[in-house]
Every structure is written in structure tokens, then in C-alpha cells.
């Protein structure tokens, strides 16, 4: 039985296809020896980093807590590049928003008032998405004090010690110079001022002080000038020689009558009759006490008493001698 022609052609074509496929499989190298061709890689898309800015919230106050308006600040990064600047308002606040995370240096460049001084610099760390609060305290500007010390004659007193004490107990000690003056800078803790008491603690070379204390009010950036007076009494100069008691010259005593030739009394130059003239020995004895009294002081009374007793003894002896001679009838010879 013969097949149709078209079936024979289809069978031959199929046989040829199968034979070509088998030949291609036999001619291919083993799979293990083949190197796969690199396939192109798809480019990676960078995911953007989400950055949330941070900031600084600044508050500036004085020492007593009152706000400081007009304070200027500069903010720089670690490279020294200025990141922001600003000035505080009436409430003493200032904000630096939209700051990338990092470390910043904060510096105050102005205070806006002469009554306060700039606060210290500082570094501030700002994290992502965080506003950092910062408080700056500006101290009050100190006051200047000048003290001048004089004596009672308005002359300067150098070398004296002056004590300056505040109401809070803070104390300073000053020493006056050759012109009697001393200066010091006084801290101020309140906008209305701080009370101080100025007192002379001791005079030159440790001498006692007699000045009265003076109370002053030191205001921010103020200048105070006061004068203290040392009321120490001037030293008294002792006399060159101590005073002496002048001796008192006794009044001359009445002469003692002494016998003369014939027992007659003699007449004095004025013509009045007196007792007998004293003998030479009686005159010398009577004149001796006057020479001693001329240089005696408190002991003049003792000499006077002794002299009077001696004169009484001599006078009594002379009278006894005259009475004895008269009673025995012997004339008294007169000495030439």
C-alpha cells in the first residue's frame, strides 16, 4: 500500500528537524565549561536623608534676674563660619532657628547698656530637631570708689588702713598713699545699687583710728568720691624742764638785843633805840640761815625752825652772861 506523497514529505521534514536538533546538542560544550555572559546591573537610586533642623532659644538676664535688652550675639560653627547673628528684644530673649545638627560657639558682642558687662562665651551642641534653651547672665558693671583721708587740720594722712564692707558681708581693705587717697572697684549686685560702709580701721603705723564711718550706695558703672577725717587729738609736747616749787623767803625776824660796852643800847641809823648790838659770833650765826634758805625748797621750814632755836639759845646765854657780870661787879671790857 502506497502512502500519499504529502505525508511522505512531512515525515522527511520532521526527520531532518530532529536530526539537526540532535546535531546541535552534540556540538554544544558541556554546561559546566560555559561562562555566563554578565547581565547589566540596574542603577541604585540614593535614598535622601531626612534632616530635621534644630535651634537655640536664648535668654539674657542681669545678675538680679532682670532682662537685658539690646544684647548682641554671634553664632559660629567649628570651622569659624558665622552661622547666625541677632539681638535680644525687650524681654531679653533671642532665637536661632533652622540650625543643622552640630556644635556652635556662642559669643556676646554687645550688652546694649553701660550698666552690665558681656557674659562669658560658651559652646552649644544642637541635635537634630531639638531647640536647645540657653541662659546667659550679664554681671553689673562695678562702681568706682575713691577715698581721701585727712586729719583735723585738713592735711592728708598717708599709711592709714580703710575698711570697705558691703551689706552682704563682702569686705575690702585699702591703704592710703602719700596723698592720703586710695581707690577700689566695688561689685554691684542690684540694678538699684549696693550699700557699702567705709571706715578708717587704723591710723598710720597702727595708731588708733578716730574717723567716723560713712555709708555709700554703689550703683552700676557709678563713681563715688568721699573724704574721711581722722579726729585723733594732736600729741601734746611735754615741757622742756619740769616745774619746780620756788622757795619762800621768810620775813626777817626781829634782832636780838645784845649788850655792849656799859650795857647801853645802840642806836640805828634812823635814830630809834634798839636793843644791844649783837656780837660778831651772833651776827654770823644769824646770817647763816639766810644763805641756806636761798637755795632750799620744801625743807625751808626745817631750817627756819632750827635757826630760830639756835638764836634763842645764843640770846639766852648772852643775857645770862650780862646778868652774871653785873651781879659780881666786874666791868665788861669793850673789844677794839
From TrEMBL:
Residues 276-288 have a biased composition (Low complexity). Keywords: Membrane, Signal, Transmembrane, Transmembrane helix. Residues 228-288 are annotated as: Disordered. Residues 232-253 have a biased composition (Pro residues). The chain crosses the membrane at residues 303-324. Pfam families: CarboxypepD_reg. Residues 1-33 form the signal peptide. This is Carboxypeptidase-like regulatory domain-containing protein. The lineage of its organism: Bacteria, Bacillati, Actinomycetota, Actinomycetes, Kitasatosporales.
Amino acid at each position: 500500500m502506497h502512502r500519499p506523497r504529502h505525508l511522505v514529505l512531512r515525515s522527511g521534514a520532521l526527520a531532518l528537524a530532529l536530526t539537526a536538533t540532535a546535531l546541535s546538542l552534540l556540538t554544544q560544550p558541556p554546561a559546566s565549561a560555559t561562562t555566563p555572559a554578565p547581565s547589566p546591573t540596574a542603577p541604585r537610586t540614593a535614598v535622601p536623608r531626612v534632616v530635621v533642623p534644630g535651634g537655640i532659644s536664648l535668654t539674657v538676664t542681669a545678675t538680679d534676674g532682670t532682662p537685658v535688652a539690646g544684647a548682641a550675639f554671634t553664632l559660629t560653627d567649628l570651622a569659624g563660619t558665622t552661622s547666625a547673628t541677632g539681638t535680644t528684644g525687650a524681654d531679653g530673649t533671642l532665637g536661632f532657628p533652622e540650625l543643622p545638627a552640630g556644635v556652635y560657639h556662642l559669643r556676646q558682642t554687645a550688652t546694649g547698656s553701660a550698666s552690665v558687662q558681656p557674659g562669658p562665651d560658651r559652646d552649644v551642641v544642637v541635635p537634630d530637631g531639638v531647640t536647645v534653651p540657653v541662659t546667659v547672665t550679664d554681671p553689673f558693671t562695678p562702681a568706682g570708689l575713691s577715698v581721701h583721708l585727712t586729719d583735723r587740720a585738713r592735711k592728708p594722712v598717708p599709711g592709714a588702713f580703710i575698711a570697705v564692707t558691703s551689706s552682704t558681708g563682702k569686705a575690702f581693705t585699702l591703704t592710703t598713699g602719700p596723698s592720703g587717697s586710695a581707690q577700689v572697684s566695688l561689685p554691684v549686685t542690684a540694678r538699684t545699687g549696693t550699700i557699702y560702709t567705709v571706715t578708717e580701721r587704723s591710723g598710720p603705723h597702727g595708731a588708733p583710728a578716730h574717723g567716723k564711718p560713712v555709708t555709700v550706695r554703689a550703683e552700676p558703672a557709678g563713681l563715688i568720691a568721699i573724704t574721711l577725717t581722722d579726729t585723733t587729738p594732736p600729741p601734746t609736747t611735754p615741757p622742756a624742764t619740769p616745774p619746780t616749787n620756788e622757795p619762800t623767803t621768810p620775813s626777817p625776824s626781829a634782832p636780838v638785843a645784845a649788850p655792849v660796852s656799859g650795857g647801853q643800847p645802840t642806836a640805828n641809823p634812823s635814830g630809834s633805840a634798839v636793843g644791844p648790838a649783837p656780837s660778831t659770833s651772833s651776827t654770823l650765826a644769824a646770817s647763816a640761815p639766810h644763805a641756806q634758805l636761798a637755795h632750799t625748797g620744801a625743807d625751808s621750814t626745817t631750817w627756819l625752825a632750827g635757826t630760830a632755836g639756835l638764836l634763842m639759845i645764843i640770846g639766852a646765854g648772852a643775857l645770862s652772861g650780862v646778868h652774871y657780870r653785873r651781879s659780881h661787879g666786874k666791868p665788861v671790857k669793850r673789844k677794839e
